[in-house]
Amino acid sequence: MSITGTLIIQMIVFLILVGFTMKFVWPPIAAALDERATKIADGLAAADKARSELSAANQRVEAELAKSRAETAALLADAERRAQQIVEEAKSRATEEGNKVLAAARAEAEQATVQAREALREQVAALAVRGAEQILRKEINPGVHAELLNRLKTEL
Fold first, then answer.
1. How confident is the model at residue 30, as a pLDDT?
2. What's this protein's family per the entry (predicted)?
């Protein structure tokens, strides 16, 4: 066999091999590659979709956080107002109680003053009687002169 015959036979075998490969081997490989490309494209699309959903979810979370912050701030402001109101009520009750105690103390002081005046009048009347006894050097009957002593008490 000559080199030309070998070369022709190798070309024929190569063409048969190429034809066989094109007919039976290449379509499953191309289909597998196409399927893989489709899966990759679907995966990338799913990743993009997940990324956009994550972004939307983050935005919803931020909105909820802002809403929660606003509600918390409103609750804090309400609690502060309520605390201020309670303090004001306590102050007013304390003022009322202080006024009641002050009025009671004034009434008690007035009553003590009246009692002290009465005791002082009686003492002054007794001293006046003793003084009159000593001046006159005779005994004065307190029962007889009770009305006179009562007038003296009221004048004092």
1. 93
2. Belongs to the ATPase B chain family.
